[in-house]
């Protein structure tokens, strides 16, 4: 569910809502005092995204069906939606990602990658279906969000290269951001909200080595004080620094990522955890990551790679990942390990791989491709049968972007035998020690994906470690389960890739 409008007086919100995953969303008006709601825009086949203007009128919707992205618009409340743009996807590859209206006029802005191949912000006249001048474009990064005033005018944008940046277009807000960054250096400082008079600002400050805190900034008094610390139990603890890195893949592709080094250890010949992100069409960011910090505290270096297909770097980089689900993406991960080994930072004979969702798939598939590279693998909620997950997605979600489009992104333009890139069908080749974990309530990657692999490995004579969490979904929501999993990870790594100094003659992946 997404909130698409907040009443300035605080009386109600508009939210898109589905009663089931396979249904298109309605737009509901929710009374914030009583919790009662009413439908203000009925669902429409194909439309997954709705947009409201700054007066709370639903003005636009985006339809994903029949391999097309179609944009619908209404000029005023009570008028019918009319189609103003339609294009094939992903062959064309350009989409409208966000829409904002200025008041109740026909003017506003769109965030689209149709101009430069990267998401930028542009003036738009909806009455004439005309895109105007660029408000903001970044030379290498996508715009990920926009900040608007109550009337809908754009006040700032967010983009992310090595870290998140809030770029304000309003000079007064530029001054405030600069003051925040001076007061809280080496952090990502985000203005989340403002009082009605604009004097008091709610600020969130965090970093890759800081789980974050809320502050309130008083503009008139030029004073800022703490408001809330969601992670008070971590106060007083120091965390490992996370540095952005870049290296070249084997085909010359420039690949970004993040390297976390264990505190108190020399940066030489460190045991390494390779941690691919989920998605795979997503990205890692310069954010606080509990898994990364836990592993670093146990003596491991951690490498996170934004392999080809990762988002945030423009359409061309995403499209480099099409058809590379089990090949080019994995190559990029392993090229990162080789780069660290060449720098002398990582010991190439002490590498384990750990990830969740697609990262869990990669953690299982990479050691099948190159078992001599890895001492062990850890997968949470990992995909193990690619064909089965595509069938599951096509049944669960009615939008074609989760079936035909998704299949093309995974397979590329030519159909391939998906069993050849599926850990389940290649289980006999998975010979390194593995730890497999999954939430039994997972509706994104069903738990059967992991259970079936455990059985296949056992039939092949292996002895995988596995744990299934009865109340978890596609991630941890209960602290006791999260702690249990990390304790299992710690013990598993201590057996198969201990973080102590390298033993004389150590090398290669150990046998079962």
- Sheet with most strands: 8 strands, mixed
Helix percent band: 10-25%
* Spans where pLDDT lies below 50 across 5 or more residues: 502-512
Task: Enumerate the strands of the largest sheet in spatial order, edge to edge or round the barrel.
Answer: 20-21-23-22-24-25-26-27
Annotated CATH architecture of the largest domain: 3-Layer(aba) Sandwich
Radius of gyration from the alpha-carbon trace, in angstroms = 24 Å
In the CATH hierarchy, the third-tier topology of the largest domain is known as Rossmann fold
Question: CATH H level of the largest domain: which superfamily?
Answer: Alpha/Beta hydrolase fold, catalytic domain
Structural class: alpha+beta
Strand content range = 25-35%
* N- and C-termini, Cα separation: 46 Å
Overall average pLDDT: 90
* Shape estimate: globular
């Amino acid at each position: 569910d997404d909130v698409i409008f907040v009443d300035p007086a605080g009386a109600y919100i508009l939210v898109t809502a589905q009663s089931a995953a396979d249904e298109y969303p309605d737009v509901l008006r929710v009374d914030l005092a009583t919790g009662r709601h009413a439908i203000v825009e009925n669902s429409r086949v194909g439309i997954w995204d709705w947009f409201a203007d700054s007066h709370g009128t639903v003005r636009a919707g985006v339809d994903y069906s029949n391999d097309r992205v179609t944009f619908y618009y209404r000029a005023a409340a009570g008028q019918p939606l009319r189609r103003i743009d339609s294009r094939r996807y992903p062959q064309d590859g350009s989409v409208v990602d966000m829409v904002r209206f200025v008041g109740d006029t026909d003017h506003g802005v769109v965030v689209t990658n149709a101009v430069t191949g990267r998401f930028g912000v542009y003036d738009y006249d909806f009455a004439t279906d005309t895109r105007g001048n660029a408000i903001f474009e970044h030379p290498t990064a996508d715009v990920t969000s926009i900040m608007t005033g109550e009337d809908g005018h754009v006040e700032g944008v967010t983009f992310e290269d090595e870290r998140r940046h809030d770029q304000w277009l309003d000079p007064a807000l530029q001054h405030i951001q600069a003051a925040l960054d001076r007061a809280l250096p080496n952090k990502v400082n985000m203005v989340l909200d403002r009082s009605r008079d604009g004097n008091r600002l709610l600020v969130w400050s965090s970093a890759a080595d800081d789980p974050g805190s809320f502050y309130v900034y008083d503009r008139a008094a030029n004073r800022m004080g703490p408001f809330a610390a969601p992670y008070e139990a971590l106060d007083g603890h120091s965390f490992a620094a996370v540095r952005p890195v870049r290296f070249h893949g084997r085909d010359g592709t420039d690949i970004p990522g993040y390297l976390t080094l264990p505190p108190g250890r020399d940066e030489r010949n460190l045991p390494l955890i390779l941690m691919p992100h989920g998605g795979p069409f997503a990205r890692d960011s310069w954010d606080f990551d509990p898994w990364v910090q836990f592993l670093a505290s146990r003596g491991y270096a951690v490498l996170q790679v934004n392999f080809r297909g990762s988002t945030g770097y423009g359409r061309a980089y995403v499209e480099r990942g099409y058809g590379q689900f089990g090949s080019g993406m994995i190559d990029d991960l392993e090229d990162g390990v080789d780069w660290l080994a060449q720098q002398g930072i990582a010991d190439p004979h002490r590498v384990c791989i750990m990830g969740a969702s697609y990262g869990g798939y990669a953690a299982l598939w990479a050691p099948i491709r190159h078992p001599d590279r890895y001492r062990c693998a850890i997968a949470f909620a990992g995909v193990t049968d690619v064909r089965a997950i595509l069938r599951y997605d096509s049944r669960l979600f009615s939008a074609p972007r989760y079936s035909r489009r998704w299949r093309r992104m995974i397979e590329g333009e030519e159909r391939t035998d998906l069993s050849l890139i599926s850990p389940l069908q290649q289980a006999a080749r998975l010979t390194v020690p593995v730890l497999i974990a999954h939430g039994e309530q997972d509706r994104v990657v069903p738990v059967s994906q992991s259970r079936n692999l455990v059985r296949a490995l056992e039939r092949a004579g292996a002895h995988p470690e596995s744990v299934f969490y009865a109340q978890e979904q596609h991630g941890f929501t209960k602290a006791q389960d999260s702690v249990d999993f990390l304790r299992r990870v710690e013990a598993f790594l201590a057996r198969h890739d201990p973080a102590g100094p390298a033993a004389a003659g150590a090398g290669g992946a150990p046998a079962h």
